[in-house]
């Protein structure tokens, strides 16, 4: 391709971007215009992809970590011929219902590999994708798995703390097929980057074991040479591309003004002149479009060759590969779970739910090969590793356990990347209190509807002496608040197993398992093959001494307290039921009839949870009672804390009695 | 001091640590034992402090970022003679009510400069403290302000993403009096660090402009030389101290086993032998204790000299300095605020609350010199800078505005450090959705009861096209969930001003201001000198056409919707009140009588907020209605989103009518 041709192709990106943003009167033109040359080289010379088969498993992955530059991605998807990305979509940029959201949204259009926008996330997703590629290649061989992961990231992404975790992890794991193109334009929102940052990025990446290069981002030959060199290294690669933000804008190029606002008609007209682009808005000259479409067709041949290689594999190998891609649960999954639950109900162990989780994992990881686990340096505490899970290392990616290091946020974002890549069901652990560190990624798991499982242990004051900085008080409530996150707080080994089943079957979103540090008795001694936790809440023990007058609701470690309180109340001849509510989201989804029958219409309701009241009001009637926390915890042995904060069976009983009394007084 | 003496002094730390942890049967002995030599050198040769005057403003600050090693700090405080830290406290390590919590808690004992535990936080606090020192020195001169900030951080702190933000910011701002001692023991919880990380830490710090050294952490002369050299540089300094974790433990030293569990009696006995320490548990030999107490007395002379220098200053300068330390609001603060509110009620501007916030800041920053502001690269969006706030730079720290860069988490933690240092009231901004990035630090602001103000703009789907990754839906609820955080979501310019007053007067905790991107009409056209928002909720408009039948509750941008719905209902002759509830926490604190009068006993209640329902149930009766969000947002212009998600005055009106109808049916 001649030099002119390249610039024309790059300008097609620039034109579409500035025009779409102008039409929407909203958007970020600077980055697409600045990185158009780099992106053109990447997609016309290197990216292995086939717009006619966007789901081709062995395609290269492209992540736009600087998600605000979404028009860059949309332009490329349109130009290379993705059917989803029609001109109409481009014209409807940032409008309701379009596939072209302000920031790229996974699931909206083929070719969008992950949802970005919140800075640094995409880069960390890409680490997960590159890791998944290596794990997949170790299992199925290079003939079937051999693709790169490319990222475009900006100054913002690289200032974010999560970038450190991502870079460090990638370097440690030697993810040699990860290539990051850094939009080195020295501009951020507040102005020139030297207002806020002086980091030597190349040195920083080198410190984490990456190879680095710096090129003129507007010199396609140099960019091409750099990417080719990066492909050859067995370390992850950084290519800093020195660019001019808003390249082509006659007066605004190089300034923060182009970062996040439409250029304006005058500037756009000036850009057309400066770039030598005279086509009308949204019109791509035939020959330039053809050149782009041809670039998109480059992938057809390698894709067909790959399909041929797959076809030539044995029947078994093909089946295995398909099963790998599907990451389905085994046919007899229900049976496996039920059988294990039956044993638990019989053995009735007293066991912390974090330990029960590990035991369940022994069964599940054996039954579900797609599961890959890990922990952010708390393996021995989270109990996330099982006997059949050797670690994944830089030398050997055939394992199933990832030591993520003290990188909760990087871990969560990498897990998103692993899930998005396909072929794996990732789960990872830390302390529940540290969900605060990775919350942005948990939110994205939910937004992207990815099956990522968060194993969050040490879930309350029950952890004891580590004190208030480590004791969750509001975390379960705060996680319940995120749309599409299923929070499960099981009360014993049986519910823990059910929680895992729910999480594994939840193919449209993440699940958080909140597990205890301390030992808990098995309450589900009566075996039920059905997954009772799947209804979110159910009657664990019905009233016996008479019609139900009181309904006690609890989750996790406090269900035991409710059971004890029930015993006290029943002794006083007050018919009392205990409702275990391992998941409020699931309970809320049940038909009202079911919920009412569980909650007991007209009964006195008291909830108990070693956390805040915030989410309980929806289940408590006006005179409902709550026993829980309304402050931070404290550093002391767990039993003393439960006493001190008044979270006891006694307190629950007292509340119930007090409400009954008040009702009697009112003549109810 | 002879070499023997040093090791004896260091062993005093080791002994107290291992014995206290053993007694508590809980704790982390490895780090205190590993860093005892370094800490001894630091506190006996360099740290400028006076245990008899722990609040001496010009003391050096010591931050134990690796907070799990709390016994290191407690040992030193006891040995150097802090009255708070008696032997009884040491013996009561991790017991209820002791000052010696599992992780150091600010406010529990003198000498604890910040609460740590969650990794990386302390390091980032220290950046704030060092920055505060420079800003204070720029204002009051080196004679009064000249102290260092020392940090002990471990591998965990340095793996955390927040460490990158902290290091990068410190390097950029040239915080030359910040010295980080890295406990380079190559062990983390899951095992040797090479399981998870391969970073060249020194190179990494160099990339951010720090000077670096690496020393044998058990060679006091080398450590001393390194600290002395670090003090001379005008860049922040890293000293990597190669140590053996659990140094002295005969079989467990150097292994992860010493990280987070008591050593056990046998190992402790072995350590006593190996270290040559034969004193009984909690007994410090007289001569060694005296050496430590003498070290503690080192600070008396410089402290007295400082007091003399202060006394010699002019009356004005002394008053200024005292006012600086107190960081009080001016005497006529109420008047200033009321006067400004009066003008607003008269002018009744239509203005986004983020812009109203900026205008209020123009008034407030002029009246309150202690305020220092900033933003995480969103100055033009958060509108946090005023005309009298020049930036703080590496060359000139006399300014009042900090460009934090894309470092939300580092910013929040630094603000904690600035507040803890004293002399300043820090506020900083980002998008509300990115509170998720800095949540751990917000939580610590609350736990430490620090006056840190979070200016969080773009607070709902009202921000429009940037889409669901940027649109808060659950964030206000999630922030309300954190104990001691005051969340304020003002409805107009007047409430915004009141919110600022509340935040500035809140000396015992952080406040979050949730502000709109879009313009909002002034609803408080009737001036009130009193701060109505301070009650958390109040009747904005009472029923007029008859007795109140319906109570509409709302916050922020939705109060306007409620007002419009009220108009529709009143037109139907249904007496309707509008309650503005800018802060649920403050409302919850009011006497029940007030709250009931505001909420209208027996009235139909409908709440409207462009967020989730989770925290509203406490104010809604069983048949209460809610208009809001129960999913993520979408990318489109704001007005279309409000329509699409059904958050309209119409919807509110319909709900109210429907409930009234249902009640009529029930014969209520």
From TrEMBL, chains A, B:
UniProt-annotated binding residues for substrate: 28, 259, 354, 381, 458, 466, 470, 517
Stored InterPro entries: THDP-binding, Transketo_C/PFOR_II, Transketolase-like_C_2, Transketolase-like_Pyr-bd, Transketolase_bac-like, Transketolase_BS, Transketolase_CS, Transketolase_fam
Residues that coordinate or bind Mg(2+): 155, 185, 187
Assigned keywords, A-Z: Calcium, Magnesium, Metal-binding, Thiamine pyrophosphate, Transferase
Entries under PROSITE patterns matching the protein: TRANSKETOLASE_1, TRANSKETOLASE_2
Annotated residues for binding of thiamine diphosphate: 68, 117-119, 156, 185, 259, 434
Active site per UniProt: 408
Residue intervals of the Transketolase-like pyrimidine-binding domain: 351-522
Superkingdom of the organism of origin: Bacteria
GO function terms (MF aspect): metal ion binding; transketolase activity
Reaction(s) this enzyme catalyzes, per UniProt: D-sedoheptulose 7-phosphate + D-glyceraldehyde 3-phosphate = aldehydo-D-ribose 5-phosphate + D-xylulose 5-phosphate
Entry EC number(s): 2.2.1.1
An example Gene Ontology CC term for this record: cytosol
Gene3D superfamilies, per database record: 3.40.50.920, 3.40.50.970
Cofactor: Co(2+); Ca(2+); Mg(2+); Mn(2+)
Statement: the UniProt record of this protein carries the keyword Transmembrane: no
Positions bearing the site annotation: Important for catalytic activity: 28, 259
Cofactor note: Binds 1 Mg(2+) ion per subunit. Can also utilize other divalent metal cations, such as Ca(2+), Mn(2+) and Co(2+). Binds 1 thiamine pyrophosphate per subunit. During the reaction, the substrate forms a covalent intermediate with the cofactor.
Coiled-coil blocks: none
GO term, biological process aspect, one: pentose-phosphate shunt, non-oxidative branch
Quaternary structure, from the entry: Homodimer.
Family as reported in the entry's similarity comment: Belongs to the transketolase family.
Known role: Catalyzes the transfer of a two-carbon ketol group from a ketose donor to an aldose acceptor, via a covalent intermediate with the cofactor thiamine pyrophosphate.
PANTHER family per the UniProt record, alphabetical: TRANSKETOLASE, TRANSKETOLASE 1-RELATED
Name this protein carries in UniProt: Transketolase
Phylogenetic lineage: Bacteria, Pseudomonadati, Pseudomonadota, Alphaproteobacteria, Rhodospirillales
């Amino acid at each position: 391709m001649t030099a002119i041709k390249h610039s024309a192709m790059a300008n097609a990106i620039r034109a579409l971007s500035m025009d779409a943003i102008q039409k929407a009167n909203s958007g970020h033109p600077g980055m697409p215009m600045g990185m158009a040359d780099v992106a053109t080289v990447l997609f016309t010379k290197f990216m292995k992809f086939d717009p006619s088969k966007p789901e081709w498993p062995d395609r290269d992955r492209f992540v736009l970590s600087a998600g605000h530059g979404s028009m860059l991605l949309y332009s490329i998807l349109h130009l290379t011929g993705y059917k989803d990305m029609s001109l109409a979509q481009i014209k409807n940029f940032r409008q309701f219902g379009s596939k072209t959201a302000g920031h790229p949204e996974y699931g909206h259009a083929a070719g969008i590999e992950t949802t970005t926008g919140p800075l640094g996330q995409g880069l960390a997703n890409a680490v997960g994708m590159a890791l998944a590629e290596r794990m997949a290649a170790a299992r199925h061989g290079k003939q079937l798995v051999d693709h790169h992961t490319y990222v475009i990231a900006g100054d913002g992404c690289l200032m974010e703390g999560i970038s450190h975790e991502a870079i460090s992890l990638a370097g440690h794991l030697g993810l040699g097929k990860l290539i990051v193109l850094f939009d080195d334009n020295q501009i951020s929102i507040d102005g020139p980057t030297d207002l806020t940052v002086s980091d030597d990025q190349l040195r920083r990446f080198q410190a984490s074991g990456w190879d680095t290069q710096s090129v003129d981002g507007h010199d396609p030959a140099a960019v091409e040479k750099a990417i080719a060199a990066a492909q050859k290294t067995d370390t992850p690669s950084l290519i800093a591309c020195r660019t001019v933000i808003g390249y082509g804008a006659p007066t605004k190029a190089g300034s923060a003004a182009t970062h996040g606002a439409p250029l304006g008609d005058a500037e756009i007209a000036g850009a057309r002149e400066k770039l030598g682009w005279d086509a009308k808005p949204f019109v791509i000259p035939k020959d330039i479009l053809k050149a782009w479409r041809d670039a998109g067709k480059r992938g057809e041949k390698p894709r067909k060759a790959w399909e041929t290689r797959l076809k030539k594999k044995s029947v078994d190998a093909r089946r295995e590969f398909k099963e790998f891609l599907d990451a389905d649960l085994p046919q007899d999954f229900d049976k496996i779970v039920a059988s294990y639950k039956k044993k638990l109900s019989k053995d009735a162990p007293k066991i912390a739910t974090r330990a029960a989780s590990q035991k369940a994992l022994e069964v599940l990881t054996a039954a579900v090969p797609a599961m890959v686990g890990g922990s952010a340096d708390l393996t021995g505490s989270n109990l996330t590793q099982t006997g059949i899970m050797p670690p994944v290392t830089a030398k050997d990616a055939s394992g199933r356990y990832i030591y993520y290091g003290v990188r909760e946020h990087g871990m969560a974002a990498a897990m998103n990347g692993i899930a998005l890549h396909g072929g794996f069901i990732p789960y990872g652990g830390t302390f529940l209190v540290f969900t605060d560190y990775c919350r942005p990624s948990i939110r994205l798991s939910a937004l992207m509807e990815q099956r990522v499982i968060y194993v969050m242990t040490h879930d309350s004051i029950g952890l004891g002496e580590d004190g208030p900085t480590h004791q969750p008080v509001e975390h379960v409530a705060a996680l319940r608040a995120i749309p599409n996150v299923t929070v499960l707080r099981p009360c014993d080994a049986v519910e823990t197993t059910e929680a895992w089943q729910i999480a594994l079957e939840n193919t449209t979103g993440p699940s958080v398992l909140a597990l205890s540090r301390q030992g808990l008795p098995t309450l589900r001694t009566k075996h039920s093959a059905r997954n009772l936790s799947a209804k979110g809440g159910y009657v664990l023990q019905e009233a016996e001494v008479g019609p139900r007058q009181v309904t006690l609701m609890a989750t996790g470690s406090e269900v035991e307290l409710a059971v004890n309180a029930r015993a006290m109340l029943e002794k006083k001849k007050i018919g009392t039921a205990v409702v275990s509510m391992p998941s409020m989201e699931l309970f809320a989804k049940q038909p009202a009839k079911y919920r009412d029958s569980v909650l007991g219409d007209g009964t006195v309701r008291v909830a108990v949870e070693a956390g805040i009241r915030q989410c309980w009001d929806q289940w408590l009637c006006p005179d409902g009672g709550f026993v829980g926390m309304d402050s931070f915890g404290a550093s002391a042995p767990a039993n003393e804390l439960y006493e001190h904060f008044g979270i006891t069976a006694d307190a629950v009983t007292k509340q119930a009695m007090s409400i009954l009394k008040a009702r009697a007084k009112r003549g109810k």
